[in-house]
UniProtKB/TrEMBL annotation:
Segment forming the signal sequence: 1-17
Protein name, per record: JmjC domain-containing protein
Gene3D superfamilies: Cupin
Keyword field: Signal
Domain of life per record: Eukaryota
Taxonomic lineage from the root: Eukaryota, Sar, Alveolata, Dinophyceae, Suessiales
GO cellular component: cytoplasm
């Protein structure tokens, strides 16, 4: 079967005001269920209240009990569009946090060095080699993918970690020198990007139009996002945006040994303006490196997400968090609202990420972000997923 490639360069828009409407129509169009607000949610991992937040009992984790998910961001709740301008709130928060230490910016997230993470991977891979023969079979490849998918869980008891230092330079990325606002516009300004908006429940909606990166950076950097996404199923040679994806991926190669190599088309790139946001959502484990600018993250453990498994055995990915002890959801698609306007969901972990730092998110952790500076760009990829035919299962270097 020919590899399928889904790649989207996204521009998220903010206008004025906020709209709440029914999503029954969009669900009917997509064939997906819009009754999430009325559904009984199956409980995820056991959560117990404790001083300083909520903690997961991982004795019986549910995230790995279902197949890895490829149904991205299902329609699970009523439609909410937040088009408020949060740029001033972002500026105010940035002034308060810009000189803080990493420990102060991310007080509840474990901090590691890139070498420490690599050492943990080397240990895990060595143990894997003792138990699995590198024979190139499908079973071996799938086992290796599962090792990568579970690796984030092993770093801090299935909780996120942040990697300190200048990760892009440590990995030898071209992006370290060429992804500043002026540099990126000069090198890739004429490349074509697809324009897409962000709201609940759709999460990402293509606007059926494109723009050059140069025009976006010049005209929309204050209130819009660009997000480049390459799917789990690889790159199609005839895809209209493949050239752009190839160029962007080459700028953040090599990937960490425990992540997908860039040539596998498992890339994630996000360009955000000040006060622009990726609202709460969850998915398979990822790593995300901040190359330029400062971004605010809010993290929620998997208890807040969907625990619904479809007929094929795949667990749905979701948007708005399901609030504990209620039938309500957190209906704010723009994470920047949590800077001042609304309280984050109970138990939310805050972390402000600055240039050079990397976040590693385990499976199903819900997260939202807000750009705190005029221009931010981050790159990363997935951990685990579909075994590739050309994956030789080589040892990390």
């Amino acid at each position: 079967m020919a590899a399928r490639f889904l790649v989207t360069a996204l521009v998220f828009y903010q206008a004025t005001g906020q709209e709440v409407a029914s999503c029954q129509d969009c669900a009917a169009e997509s064939g997906e269920d819009a009754s999430f607000l009325q559904a009984t949610k199956a409980k995820g991992p056991h959560i117990e209240a404790a001083k300083g937040g909520l903690y997961i009992d991982n004795k019986n984790p549910w995230a790995r009990s279902a197949k890895k998910r490829y149904n991205h961001h299902r329609h699970m709740h009523e439609k909410v569009v937040d088009s408020t301008d949060y740029s001033q709130d972002a500026t105010d928060v940035y002034e308060k946090v810009k000189d803080l230490s990493l420990e102060e910016r991310c007080p509840r997230v474990k901090i590691m060095t890139l070498d420490e993470v690599q050492d943990r991977w080397n240990e895990a891979f060595a143990d894997f080699q003792q138990k699995n023969k590198a024979d190139g079979t499908k079973a071996y490849k799938e086992a290796l993918e599962d090792l990568k998918a579970d690796f984030a869980d092993a770093l801090d008891n299935a909780k996120p970690v942040i990697v300190k230092g200048d990760v892009p330079r440590q990995l030898g990325w071209k992006a370290a020198d060429h992804w500043g606002k002026d540099e990126l516009s000069r090198f890739l300004g004429d490349t074509t990007w697809q324009r897409t908006t962000f709201n609940y429940p759709d999460w990402i909606i293509g606007l059926n139009s494109r723009t050059s990166l140069k025009d976006y950076l010049a005209n929309h950097d204050s209130k819009e996002n660009v997000f480049l996404f390459a799917s789990e199923n690889g790159c199609s040679e005839d895809h209209a945006l493949k050239s752009l994806v190839d160029t962007m991926r080459s700028h953040f190669a090599p990937s960490p040994e425990w992540g997908y190599p860039p040539e596998a088309c498992e890339a994630i790139i996000a360009v955000d303006g000040i006060g622009s946001s990726h609202g709460f959502h969850c998915h398979d484990p990822v790593w995300n490196t901040q190359v330029s600018g400062t971004k605010h993250w809010w993290l929620l453990d998997p208890f807040y997400g969907s625990n619904i498994v479809d007929s094929a055995g795949y667990m749905e990915w979701g948007g708005a968090p399901k609030l504990p002890n209620s039938n309500k959801t957190f209906e704010f698609p723009n994470g920047c609202a949590m800077l001042k306007e609304v309280q984050p969901p109970e138990g939310a972990i805050k972390c402000v990420v600055q240039p050079g730092e990397m976040i590693i998110l385990p499976d199903s952790w819900m997260h939202a972000t807000c750009g705190l500076t005029e221009y931010t760009i981050a790159a990363g990829g997935w951990l685990g997923g579909t075994a590739k035919e050309d994956d030789k299962g080589t040892a990390p270097k």
